[in-house]
Amino acid sequence: MKKYTYSAKKSDNEGNWGLVDANGAILGRLATIVASRLQGKHNPLFTPHVDTGDWIVVINADKIQLTGKKFDQKRYYRHSGYVGGLSEMTAKDLKEKRPEDLIRFAVKGMLPKNKLGRKLFNKLKVYAGDQHLRCRGTNRDHGEPDHKFGNSDQARYVLRSGDHELSAHSNPRDADREESDCGDGAS
């Protein structure tokens, strides 16, 4: 009998959906959990060069927290492409204008810098409020999920920070991370 390490294929990905509530969560700790779920590192079939991760929906991005003086000191830069076109924005200003981008930038920096990383990043959906798009099923022709406004009854698991199910508040070793179905009335 031959023994070998199984390498996952594209067809092995179930494409589960997860809902993450960012209410009061620390940005970096939340981003590590989301990036790990997007890559599929929680999956026993994890293979670095194959997409084995889940689709993630993050809600309440406008209630994210940063530690220390990072709201005033952390800066985000972009360039228009023209001479002297460098513009900067503090985390406080970015949170006021586009709070979703705080989470997007943090998660994108934790994903691989290649084609697979760009594909994984497209599986992240971030919303400022608690209203979000949820998965109603999968469009078999294109492989893309169908969306509709509503609650979280189609998510495979829900990670909430208020119930200490998401270890983004304190030391990850202290908090228990549990998975729960959306059918229990949690949203």
Topology:
Blueprint: E1 17-21, H1 27-39, E2 55-59, H2 70-73, E3 75-79, E4 86-90, H3 91-97, H4 99-108, H5 115-121, E5 124-126, E6 132-138, E7 145-150, E8 157-160
Parallel strand pairs: 1-2, 1-8, 2-5
Antiparallel strand pairs: 3-4, 6-7
Helix pairs in contact: 1-4, 3-4
Question: Can you walk me through this structure?
Answer:
- By secondary structure, the protein is of the alpha/beta class.
- It has a single domain, classed as Ribosomal Protein L13p, Chain: A (Alpha-Beta Complex).
- 22% of the residues lie in helices and 21% in strands.
- It has five helices and eight strands.
- The strands form three sheets. The chain has a four-stranded parallel beta sheet, with helices on one face. Strands 3-4 form a two-stranded antiparallel sheet.
- Strand 1, helix 1 and strand 2 form a beta-alpha-beta unit.
- The longest helix has 13 residues.
- The N and C termini lie far apart (48 Å).
- The C terminus is likely disordered.
